[in-house]
What does this fold into?
Amino acid sequence: MLRITRRVGERIILGDNVIIEVTEIKGQSVRIGIEAPRSLPIYREEIWLDVKRENEAAARSEGGKLPDVSARLKGAGR
Amino acid sequence: MMIESSRFGRVEIDPETVVEFPDGLIGLGGSRYALLARDPDSAFLWLHSIEDPSLALPVTNPHRLFSDFKVELADDDGDRLGLDDVTAVSVYVTVCAGSALEDFTANLKAPILIWSGRGHQVINQAQGCELRARVFSDAGREPEPAC
It folds into this structure.
């Protein structure tokens, strides 16, 4: 991994169109600003990993007929 | 169009059910999926990759299973997807189909929005939406960690 030291207000540019700026440092927290093309999704890593794991788990579901479970659905009670 | 699904064998795909995912599914990728109804009576559909015969995820309409379900997008997601002037959006959530019904969970944290033949999996900012919401209420124990 490339490691770069930056001060508050300094930026890093990825390619031609992604800019990352350190905007604030408070204790162990660093606030970062990101300018990127609108079409580029941006995620916090832990959320991205959670969703990736859930997608992978769902994709391991067996192909058998999923049950017709209307009668047991939670919907009625929630 | 026909695909050779590793789960279902030869399957005819209705072009109307094909959804383009410009960004793929989060962490899984893929850009073209079809919404397959294997059983018209079931609450579950399969989001089946057109490109990878082994890749398919069960999905369901969350509003049917979770009456208080709602989707709230972060401002930048709303801007990115340009949803403001779109009205007809279908919402699905992925389902982890465990070996027992009690282990079925739905991912309310990352719903899939589909409109005009395009799909995006988004992060739901609504309070309290669970990554593994139990689908069936008559279960007392935690879902199996594997799925």
User: Anything to note?
Assistant: The two ends of chain A are 47 Å apart (CA to CA).
